[in-house]
Amino acid sequence: MKALLQRVTGARVEVDGESVGAIDTGLLVLLGLDKDDDEAGAARLLDKLLAYRVFPDDSGRMNRSVADIGGGVLLVSQFTLSADTAKGLRPSFSSAMPPAQAEALYSRICEMLRERHPAVAFGRFGADMQVSLVNDGPVTFLLEV
């Protein structure tokens, strides 16, 4: 499981010109699910991303989490994060979780995130999404579980 965290001052997801999820200051999280990923790994990932200290304290040091600042979390499924790019000029997705299984796990992760954090929004699984963001910093981290 891979989560690309981007500290943002705002982010939104549109499908067919309609906004399906948006946040102000917080984290845009692009989520890639691999074949062996499970709910236990998802719980560890959510615990980590909600506590990950990427926001500045009063001294300007990254000592505050999205939970600390009461920021939003916009979670977007992105299977391309599971790509194997080691060989050739075309990515391989053989390690990605099959779509039906990935959709079920993504839905469960969305439920778990709603239970853990008050300000959440989501992309639409499998849709052609247009993601807009203002990356603050820029600050971007790849978490793997």
Automatic annotation (TrEMBL):
Keywords: Cytoplasm, Hydrolase, RNA-binding, tRNA-binding. The keyword Cytoplasm applies. It is an enzyme of class 3 (hydrolase). Its main location: cytoplasm. Gene3D superfamilies: D-tyrosyl-tRNA(Tyr) deacylase. A motif (Gly-cisPro motif, important for rejection of L-amino acids) lies at residues 137-138. The keyword Hydrolase applies. Its EC number is 3.1.1.96, 3.1.1.-. InterPro entries: Daa-tRNA_deacyls_DTD (IPR003732), DTD-like_sf (IPR023509). GO terms for molecular function: D-tyrosyl-tRNA(Tyr) deacylase activity; Gly-tRNA(Ala) deacylase activity; Ser(Gly)-tRNA(Ala) hydrolase activity; tRNA binding. It catalyses: glycyl-tRNA(Ala) + H2O = tRNA(Ala) + glycine + H(+); a D-aminoacyl-tRNA + H2O = a tRNA + a D-alpha-amino acid + H(+). It is found in: Cytoplasm. A Gly-cisPro motif from one monomer fits into the active site of the other monomer to allow specific chiral rejection of L-amino acids. Homodimer. An aminoacyl-tRNA editing enzyme that deacylates mischarged D-aminoacyl-tRNAs. Also deacylates mischarged glycyl-tRNA(Ala), protecting cells against glycine mischarging by AlaRS. Acts via tRNA-based rather than protein-based catalysis; rejects L-amino acids rather than detecting D-amino acids in the active site. By recycling D-aminoacyl-tRNA to D-amino acids and free tRNA molecules, this enzyme counteracts the toxicity associated with the formation of D-aminoacyl-tRNA entities in vivo and helps enforce protein L-homochirality. This is D-aminoacyl-tRNA deacylase. It comes from Mangrovimicrobium sediminis. The lineage of its organism: Bacteria, Pseudomonadati, Pseudomonadota, Gammaproteobacteria, Cellvibrionales. The gene is dtd.
